[in-house]
Amino acid sequence: MCTKADMHLKDRMKPAQKLDIAVIGAGWYGCHIALELKKEGHHVVVFEKQPDILQGISGTFGIRLHKGPHYPRSKPTREACRDVFEKFCHTYPELVVAHEQSIYGLGERDALGYASKVTPEVFHDVCNESPECRTLDVEQLGFAGLISAYDMDEPSIVIGNRLRSALKRRLHHASVDVRVGCDVKEITKADSKQQVSVDDSVHAFDVVVNATAYHSLIPAGILKSLPVDIEVTYQACIGLVYEDQTPQDIPFSFIVMDGWFPCIMPAISTNERPCRDYLIIHGAYTVMGSYDSLQEAQDLLGRLDDAVIGTKVRSHIEHELERFWPGYTARFVYKGWRGATLPKLKTRAEFRSSLTFERDGVIYIFPGKINNVFNAAEETLTLVDYISKQRMGVLPLAAQSTSAVHTCNGVCYTTQSAFSTATQELAQKPSAGEQSTSNLQSLSIMDPEFGVGVEL
Ligand SMILES: Cc1cc2nc3c(=O)[nH]c(=O)nc-3n(C[C@H](O)[C@H](O)[C@H](O)COP(=O)(O)OP(=O)(O)OC[C@H]3O[C@@H](n4cnc5c(N)ncnc54)[C@H](O)[C@@H]3O)c2cc1C
Predict the structure, then answer these.
(1) 185-193 long-range Cβ contacts below 8 angstroms, 24+ apart
(2) CB 178 within 8 A of CB 48
(3) Is the CB of 258 inside a 6 Å radius of any atom of ligand 1?
(4) Confidence band of 262 (pLDDT split at 50, 70, 90)
(5) Distance 163 CA to ligand 1 centre (A)
(6) pLDDT tens digit string along 363-384?
(7) Most exposed among 51, 75, 389, 421, judged by the fewest C-beta atoms under 10 Å?
(8) DSSP E strands, 315-448
């Protein structure tokens, strides 16, 4: 049962106590949350298992600083993207690169012959939620197979070494203690402390933030304690990299919606201009498999090689790109591919913002878009403050909920959380056989040797 006690959001402005906090995982979520916790005066240690920061999903794929139209069926996702868009640009100006054009087109038919999942009217309205949105003349654009198209100021976030060096500088400047090559094996509770085990050593903290992209240290059965019944799938995702033979000084993006369509976005990992590398993902062909366990998704990713991607996947992708951009393959040359495993929520509306919740002194982050690092950090600070006030006795330990934090089944989440604001979307799952990105098994369709999967 959920009850309320008294703590207001504004109270978070004055941290009750400086805590020792471990952040596990140095992707976009871990790095940003560590910086925000440090600003509040907490003692923060980041543990990253890789030899360097940002070697996971963020440093490879976190490209578009979304304004919303990529999620035409999920209003909460679009709102969450827009709410923090300006804040992101303002906080990380050196990491945001403006485009010549960011084109969102509504495709006539997707790769499997289906009509777009949204009507031209809905697509128009969704794009025009961004006030600067311009309607483009599809006849003059030089593309094909589009019903309508819009241009908006949706920039890219840099990735790779450029992102890595910039965030390293910020973490160093803020004196955040970052320990790389530290694979956290276990978190155990001892009295009021959390014991974090790394190799042979154990470190004690007041609070732990699990920012491992929901990959590690997730207690069995925790989903059952959450206030909304959510389902998670782990996906083996890839992206294909192409080099632009006639690169323009200012990059562009071209996204076709809404279904099994292609996306072209700049992959900016250096300060060099012009931008030559573009990353291609496709609704039908780059989510190679969807599984209940991370291990299965990682196994599939481990089995992919240049032969499978460079032949089977690439030919489907290039066929699709030519369909919407006649002449694409004459201008862009295939360079290679990248892969990662991504957790995704199964929702009918394709909800893609982050979820943040706490149990037993550990704050779990289920990642969304890169924009949502701000939502996750804000919610983390509120939860940390709640824990700290409970420990100081400002709030009774038995306090179930406050005006800023709800508690259900021992799990705490904030009133800003998607558990509070997008309950209905989170609860609505795609039905069996429904066309959804959460049950994609593209590789088994393109290459039956990899096993029979759910039909697209
Ligand atoms: C193909 C694709 C395209 C995408 N495109 C976009 C886009 O255009 N725009 C956008 O906003 N988002 C996009 N996303 C989503 C976005 O990139 C991710 O949701 C986000 O980067 C996740 O960030 P993270 O910090 O949670 O994860 P990560 O960046 O993966 O960081 C997690 C870190 O935790 C570390 N770790 C894991 N376990 C442990 C452990 N036990 N001990 C220590 N360290 C550990 C990992 O090594 C890793 O460094 C895309 C995702 C994919 C897959």
Answers:
(1) 186/217, 187/24, 187/217, 187/362, 189/360, 189/361, 192/361, 192/391
(2) yes
(3) no
(4) very high
(5) 13
(6) 999 999 999 999 999 999 999 9
(7) 51
(8) 332-345, 355-359, 362-366, 405-408, 411-414
Dist. CA 200–CA 146, nearest whole Å: 58
Quote the percentage of the chain above a pLDDT of 70. Answer: 93
Q: In this structure, are residues 238 and 339 in contact, taking their beta carbons and an 8 Å threshold? A: yes
Strand partners, 369: none
Parallel, antiparallel, or unpaired for β 362-366 and 355-359?
A: antiparallel
Which alpha helices (DSSP H) does 198-305 contain, by range? 294-303
**Amino acid 10: pLDDT:** 46
Position in ligand 1 atom list of the atom nearest CA 354: 19
Q: pLDDT digit string (tens) for 326-355?
A: 999 999 999 999 999 999 999 999 999 999
Phi–psi pair at 400, nearest 5 degrees? -80, -50
Element (H, E) at 146: strand 146-151
| Helix, strand or coil, per DSSP, at residue 241 | strand
214: left (phi over 0), alpha (psi -120 to 50) or beta: left
Instruction: Using DSSP, state whether 23 is helix, strand or coil.
Output: strand
CATH node for 9-57+161-229+351-421: 3.50.50.60
Q: If you take atom 52 of ligand 1, which residue's CA is the nearest one?
A: 61
Tell me the domain boundaries of the chain: 9-57+161-229+351-421, 100-153+232-345+432-450
Task: Quote the tokens at residue 95.
Answer: 């990491």
pLDDT digits (tens, 9 = 90+) for 20-61: 999 999 999 999 999 999 999 999 999 999 999 999 999 999
Q: Which of 33, 53, 57, 374 to mutate to test the pocket of ligand 1 (most atoms within 8 A of CB)?
A: 57
Q: Which fold has domain 100-153+232-345+432-450?
A: D-Amino Acid Oxidase; Chain A, domain 2 (3.30.9)
- Ligand 1: distance of its center to the CA of 56 in Å? 5
Helix (H) or strand (E) holding 386: helix 373-392
Q: Whole-angstrom Cα distance, residue 188 to residue 25?
A: 17
Sequential DSSP letters for 83-145: HHHHHHHHH-GGGEE--SEEEEEEESB-TTSPBPSS-HHHHHHHHTTSTT-EEE-HHHHS--S
Question: Is residue 307 packed enough to be buried (19+ CB in 10 Å), middle (13-18) or exposed (0-12)?
Answer: exposed
* Ligand 1 lined by 184 (C-beta under 6 Å): yes
